[in-house]
Amino acid sequence: MEEEDVARVGSDYESEKGRRPLYRTQSSMERDSYFPSDSDLDLSFTSYTSTASTDRTFASSSARSSLSAAVEFPIRVSLDGPPRRPPRHRGSDPHWSAVAAAASVSPDGVLRLHHLKLLRRLGSGNLGRVFHCRLKGFDGDFALKVVDRDAVSGKKLAQARTEAGVLALLDHPFLPTLYAQLEVSHYSCLLIDYCARGDLHSLMRARPGNRLPLAAARFYAAEVLLALEYLHCKGIVYRDLKPENVLVRADGHVMLSDFDLCFQADVVAAVEKAETAAPPPGSSDCDCFGRRRRKTVEETTEVVVEPRGAYSRSCVGTHEYLAPEVVDGGGHGSGVDWWAFGVFLYEMLYGRTPFRGASKEATLRNIHTKGLGFPGAGDGEEEGMAEARDLIGRLLVKDPRKRLGCDNGAPEIKRHPFLAGVNWPLIRCYTPPGTRTSSSRDVRVGGIDGKTRPRWSLRRLWHFGNKKHDQVLNGRKWL
Ligand SMILES: Nc1ncnc2c1ncn2[C@@H]1O[C@H](COP(=O)(O)OP(=O)(O)OP(=O)(O)O)[C@@H](O)[C@H]1O
């Protein structure tokens, strides 16, 4: 890591007891109303700044700031041109029809800001503010991310463009959908999915010991893993995984947010051999005479789409989540996301991150030098903790060449015993933590504790024909 960065990190620490973002300054958006009294804008944002309508539960006051650097890899997508078309997989989402219907009443067929009704401010971040909103006359909730182009530096503007560029590329249930991008006066607004349950960091802090039960941690880890896998397939390295950036939708499933620190690299799909230890289905480790079975190894092939050649030298991310190679400043690739995934799992299970020190400098030193340790197990350790520790240990390997995931990406991690019981194609049919199991006809009856499963198998879903199958897998019916 370069000296300048360490100095900046160090000096920031004292003032950051409230853990405010590193480069945040009071923008004109904080001081004034959000939008000028433009004839196109019938919204006065002023009331949202001072009233109780700001929902602080969404923006946990102790959220950790991210280190940011200049954007050196532009995201390869054009945001100019006609209004956005629904993406292939998320296109059946009713939010798209609402956006299309609202836009159709406009003379030029384009969605405008006055079509939106702002309900409350959800919080503000490094780049701007986020509002909960609805389309006037339509059902469905959205979030509106607003950046004041006049109030942010060129670097932040570049980050805002990166974020918009990444959002425009996404089409995945655990990532936000960009419904529209509105340029109004000096404001850039992104209309995306709204997550009614706030962020995982706040949810964890509301629990004893700031940690989650193992089954919940496994569920969130599995969904985040799929989101990271998708991003890597697109060549996007995320670089800012932390519970603050894992939002929870109304249905309990996750959505990653904050893509301003991403970078994009080339990715080439490759078919690789993979070995999995395959115990005979439904069998125990011993045969009927009590003798230990020999482990059979199954050789399969798998498609690997990991941006293995991704390379960046910038120091970005959140201190406690930085990988050693980022701290070094010697260059890093997609492996930083797998390191952060290990820290994320650790924090969900133990209520704190593994290398946190008394100051941010101490944290960075620990990442480099300190070995990985786990709090004492105690008596009543939950089943599965040993597997979780093993997975964390394989992810938090300081040398990225030996880290799980760095070779073949997410499939390597999916095969680990901690996650091996997850039925990946049906993950959206699991009952998310904290959601009530509804009627017996609801498919979301499984838990993710490794014992109970989604009740419907893929084979059974096919009996309902493709339409039903699509509905289940797209989650349309049960969202
Ligand atoms: N789609 C959304 N649905 C619900 N809440 C959201 C949504 N997007 C952001 N938020 C909330 O709004 C607040 C501000 O989000 P934003 O992404 O701008 O900043 P941040 O998470 O603090 O990130 P950073 O400062 O690192 O860019 C956060 O507390 C976040 O939880």
UniProtKB/TrEMBL annotation:
Ranges where the Protein kinase domain occurs: 116-419
Top-rank taxon: Eukaryota
SUPFAM superfamilies: Protein kinase-like (PK-like)
Catalysis performed (reactions): L-seryl-[protein] + ATP = O-phospho-L-seryl-[protein] + ADP + H(+); L-threonyl-[protein] + ATP = O-phospho-L-threonyl-[protein] + ADP + H(+)
Keyword set, alphabetical order: ATP-binding, Kinase, Nucleotide-binding, Serine/threonine-protein kinase, Transferase
Renumbered residue ranges of the record's region Disordered: 1-36
Class in the EC hierarchy, top level: transferase
One Pfam family from the record: Pkinase
Record-linked SMART domains: S_TKc (SM00220)
Gene3D superfamilies: Phosphorylase Kinase, domain 1 (3.30.200.20), Transferase(Phosphotransferase) domain 1 (1.10.510.10)
EC id: 2.7.11.1
Listed GO MF terms: ATP binding; protein serine/threonine kinase activity
Protein family (similarity comment): Belongs to the protein kinase superfamily. AGC Ser/Thr protein kinase family.
Designated name of the protein: non-specific serine/threonine protein kinase
Protein's organism: Aristolochia fimbriata (White veined hardy Dutchman's pipe vine)
